[in-house]
Amino acid sequence: MKSWFRLLSFFIVVPCVAGAETAIDPGRFQLQVEKGAEARSAIVDDENQPGSKEAMVTVSKPGPEFWSVELRAPGFSFEEGKRYSLVFRAKSSQSEYVYFTLEKSDGNQASIARGSMLQISEQPTDCTVEFEVQQKAPAARITISSLSVDQATFYFSDFKLIEK
Predict the structure, then answer these.
(1) Which pTM value belongs to this model?
(2) Structural domain tally of the chain?
(3) In-domain check, residue 10
(4) Measuring CA to CA, how many Å separate 66 from each of 3, 69, 103, 127, 162?
(5) pLDDT digits 0-9 by tens, 16-64
(6) C-alpha separations of 79 from 11, 132, 150, 154 in Å
């Protein structure tokens, strides 16, 4: 009887402690190009992990604003006061700083968490960006911005969103 109680308590307690982890398909990210910039995106085979796919963005003409080229993954809901980690692999054709944030996607595109700049190197690198949500957003997205600073090609894969 004791072993059943322990097993039952494990299944009740562990999910609350561990937090939810959501894998994000690279194909969920949509390219947004504005302000005279030129870029294209594609889902390609990940050369470093056979059988895996990655989002590739090639910026051929940088725009005048840091948001001229962005990758956006819509369809998320975030709760005020909760913390989230975005875990992924990334590389760039040249070392570049890229901006990551969470935004509303219901018309008002305001950020709902403080964004983070992250240097993307020329070698595939495991990355983590932490967010603390400042405002509830039932319709939200993950935005990768500042892709339009220079001509470059970016690769992103193995996305996971972890609720803390």
Answers:
(1) 0.85
(2) 1
(3) no
(4) 57, 7, 16, 21, 27
(5) 344 799 999 999 999 999 979 999 999 999 888 888 999 999 999 998 8
(6) 24, 9, 35, 30
